[in-house]
Every structure is written in C-alpha cells, then in structure tokens.
Amino acid sequence: KKDTFILGIETSCDETAASIVKNGTEIVSNVVASQIESHKRFGGVVPEIASRHHVEQMTIVLEEAFQEAGMNWDQIDAITVTEGPGLVGALLVGVNAAKALAFAKQKPLVGVHHIAGHIYANRLEKEFTFPLLALIVSGGHTELVLMKEHGSYELIGETRDDAAGEAYDKVARMLDLPYPGGPHIDRLAEIGEETIDFPRAWLEDGSYDFSFSGLKSAVINKIHNAKQRGETLKAEDIAASFQASVVDVLTTKTLRAAKEFNVKQVIVAGGVAANKGLRTELEAKFSETNIPLLIPPLKLCTDNAAMIAAAGTIAYEQGRRSGLDLNANPSLLL
Length: 334
Ligand code: KG4
Ligand code: ZN
Fold this sequence. Notes:
The structure is a single chain. With 334 residues, the chain is an alpha/beta fold. Helix content is 43%, strand content 18%. The radius of gyration is 20 Å and the shape is globular. The mean pLDDT is 96. It catalyses: L-threonylcarbamoyladenylate + adenosine(37) in tRNA = N(6)-L-threonylcarbamoyladenosine(37) in tRNA + AMP + H(+). Residues 26-309 form the Gcp-like domain.
C-alpha cells in the first residue's frame, strides 16, 4: 500500500502550526510558532493580536514544515486544517491559507475539528484500541468523548462553565502568577499541602459533565476572607487544595465512564494533560484496573498541527472532503 502524506495546519488559538504526517501515525515534520510572549502582558490571549501573528507566521511555518520534512508539494496527498472551534479571526487565517493552497496546488482539502486533533495526537504515539475514552482538558475544553471506531466521536460529558485550564489560569491570576498559570499552579501544588477543603462539583447522579466556576469562586472567597481577617494563606497550599479538587473530579469521572462503557483504552489530551498531579492520580487509579492509559508527551498535549494532520488522515481515508467554501466555525460541534 502506498504511503499517505498529509499536511496539517492549525491556527485556532495562539499557536501557528504546520506539520506533515505519514500514514496518520508518524510525524515527518512538526513546526509550532508560539505567541505566548506577546499575550503574556495582557494575562490571556488577545484575539486581534493572535490573528495578526498568524498572518505573519503562516507562510514561514509552512515553509519550515516542508524543509524539516525534506519534501515537496508533489508528495502531499491532502491538506487538512482546523476549521473550529476556536477564535474566529485566528481560525480564518489557517482556513484561508489551506483553501488557497488546495486551489493552487490542486490538492484535496479536509476541515478538521480541533478536539478530534487533540484526541488523535495520541495515535502518533500508539495505535488506538476501540472502544476508547478520551479525556480532553485544555484552556478551552473539558470533555469526555467515547469513540467506537475511527472518526466517530460521542460526547458523553463536557464543562458547563469554565474549562479546566481556564480555571487554572484564573486561579493563577488571583495568586499573581504569570500567564499561562497552569504550570505555575502545578509546580506550587507539588510543594504545598492540601489544607483547604474546596468543593467538588459532582453534579447530578451519573452525570459526566463538569463545572469549575463554583470552585473558582470558592478560591476567590477564601483568599478574600483571609485578607479581611488578616490571615496569611500560603499560595502553595491554595494551589495544592485547588488542584486536589480539579484532579479528584476529573479522575473519578474518567474512571467511572471507562468502566461503564467498558473501554479498552483511555487517552488524555490537551494542555492540562501536562499536569503532574493529574497524571499521577490517573496513573494510580488506572493501574488498579486492566484498562491501558495513554498520556501523550508534553509537545503533543498542547496545540500543534501534527494532531490535525493525524485526525485529518482518518477523515481523508474515510472520503471526507471540504469544498473551497470551507469556513471557520468558532463553535463547531464534534
Ligand atoms: O491545549 P492547550 O495548549 O491550548 C488550548 O487548546 O486551550 O492548553 C492550554 C492550557 C492553559 O490553560 C494552561 O494553563 C494549561 O493548559 N496547562 C496546565 C499545565 N500546562 C498547561 N494546566 C495545569 N497544569 C499544567 N502543568
Ligand atoms: Zn487545543
């Protein structure tokens, strides 16, 4: 069978990325231009600035992806691009670049869902075994997705308010930690003690949904009340107690869903998958079961285009095609 080489393009948030992936499983090149430095002083991603950076970086990143791979356009079978969800202005840059290239180079075009990408980042490490359960935890997402076969996604739970990473970033801000705050809280949590009993939002019986806004408010109140009473709370203890609540809910619901749906594999995706507390607790919980747990390396947890090419390869092989009328869809459903 002939090898398939797929180009992936990702611009949904603050990373401009291009990658070439072989047969949906092997990274040939993977280039990511991060904008974190430009957004840092604002304490979060500024959409307008993100779009402008994508415009500046897109052709450079694409050229690098071909250079790193030592390949040319003749060898590319299809162009895949994140069509949503994400920031509309940011998405539009990638979608329009992909459309222009598909037209100019006469290549098939396939739009990809960003979360499908995060899930398929794992297939660059290890082949999938179905049914599988994916826990997606990032700055914009907290989802549990059941997959019975390639390219089929069943949303069984999602956040009703803040995403897990968003909660991390907001709590980090209250503690005057730099953006993005997740890694800083993670580091503090390691040295802190779980002295505060923050709430766990289990929601209704049997629900696989998540909610982190109540926890966020509880942290604000705790800090505020302590200040008023002149008490000093240690930042590392707040971090440890907050992280314990997030990790407890995420791991408990993931384990319950994995058992209920009798899955053969559990995979974790998104930036928060880098969290040490989450990794440790997931590994501990799943080591007591016979369900294999897969957490990708850090580079594949955060936004990149190899994951888009990997998910796009399956869509391409399944015959899915997008027209040149493909548009960015900031609230695209999985
Ligand atoms: O997947 P990602 O790079 O971008 C989105 O699609 O959102 O995820 C970024 C998010 C940020 O909220 C960041 O604070 C969080 O992932 N994050 C972490 C850690 N590393 C990154 N959160 C907790 N612990 C970490 N070690
Ligand atoms: Zn993402």
